[in-house]
Design goal:
2 domains; alpha/beta; DNA polymerase, domain 1; Rossmann fold; seven-stranded mixed beta sheet; binds S-adenosylmethionine; 38% helix; 300 residues
């Protein structure tokens, strides 16, 4: 199976998830199976792979290395549904590698590409939910600005949102490249000025923050004692959400009140006090990994 996607922080994931013989694992963002294929090299008893993109699971079922292995179970859907779909299981390790895969980014028809023209879509599971164009048709410029700020803290979000809604209403947003151009010209050697805009819009269309906030605390409850949860994020807003959930689960104060009101029962210990980031060596081979941050907790 041709791999377009390089798994990010692969060795760091394996080290932190601390695979045990006969263990039960879940990869909630199965993607191109970059991490799962390595987990399946170990003597584990079950790996549940989840993805909301049906095409990615179908491709694995056709060509994937472990497609006929009885230890692998694939589940389709947003990971917020995963909890109810696997009620009978407790896990020794869970991986969540957020965002989109390189394949999804490169397939222009999915609408994630800044460089190749594609439709205003950006749904990770095409056919479910509203494509980006429907969001543009329904949101006011102010509502869109709030989404851009909430998801990726885009500076000048109001100005950019006004430009987008105006261009959309005038029929000028014919494809993703026309959308990217609204963020300004690409300067050689620098990342595209529309990168953060596309991240924010993708997070809006796929309701990614809500997915994280709903699911990550529930995943902690599905770990066995000693089980580990590893999360990789690609944007500081995502990392902040994960950090807060982990600190709360570790019994730390996460509120700004003079007298703490948020203190909760200690459910986990923090394995990574600071997030792990890719080495220079990984970055030289895979510049897409540059903003990745890995955090890990262990169930008490
Ligand atoms: C960064 S890729 C994962 C890549 C994978 N770890 C690998 O190395 O091949 C993220 C994948 O998770 C899926 N995904 C993202 N958010 C999701 C969610 N909330 N529920 C289910 N799948 C999700 C995407 O469709 C994509 O295939």
């Amino acid at each position: 199976m041709k791999k377009l996607h390089r798994p990010v922080l692969l060795m760091e994931v394996i080290e932190n998830i601390a695979v045990i013989k006969g263990g039960i694992y879940a990869d909630l963002t199965f993607g191109e199976a970059g991490h799962s294929d390595v987990l399946l090299e170990y003597d584990i008893s079950l790996l549940v792979g989840n993805d909301r993109d049906k095409s990615t699971l179908d491709r694995y079922l056709e060509h994937g290395k472990y497609r006929n292995d009885s230890r692998l179970r694939l589940v389709e859907g947003p990971f917020s549904q995963f909890i109810s779909q696997t009620e009978e299981l407790l896990f020794d390790g869970i991986l969540v590698d957020l965002g989109v895969s390189t394949r999804q980014l490169l397939e222009a028809e999915r609408g994630f590409s800044l460089m190749k023209p594609g439709p205003l879509d950006m749904r990770m599971n095409p056919g479910v939910g509203e494509p980006l164009s429907s969001w543009f048709a329904q949101l006011t410029a102010e509502e869109l600005a709030n989404e851009l700020y909430r998801n990726a803290e885009i500076r000048e979000s109001r100005r950019l949102a006004r430009k987008i809604i105006q261009a959309f209403n005038e029929g000028r947003l014919t494809d993703t490249v026309a959308l990217a151009e609204l963020a300004g010209p690409k300067i050689p050697g620098r990342s595209h000025p529309a990168t953060a805009l596309f991240t924010a819009l993708r997070m809006m269309v796929n309701q990614e923050k809500d997915e994280m906030e709903q699911t990550i605390p529930a995943l902690i409850d599905r770990l066995k004692p000693g089980g580990r949860l590893v999360v990789i994020t690609f944007h500081s807003t995502e990392d902040r959400v994960i950090k807060k959930i982990f600190l709360k689960a570790a019994g730390r104060c996460t509120c700004d009140e003079p007298i703490c009101r948020c203190r909760q029962k200690e459910k986990v210990k923090l394995i990574t006090k600071k997030p792990i980031q890719p080495s220079e060596e990984e970055l030289s081979e895979n510049p897409r990994a540059r903003s990745a941050k890995l955090r890990c907790v262990e169930k008490i």
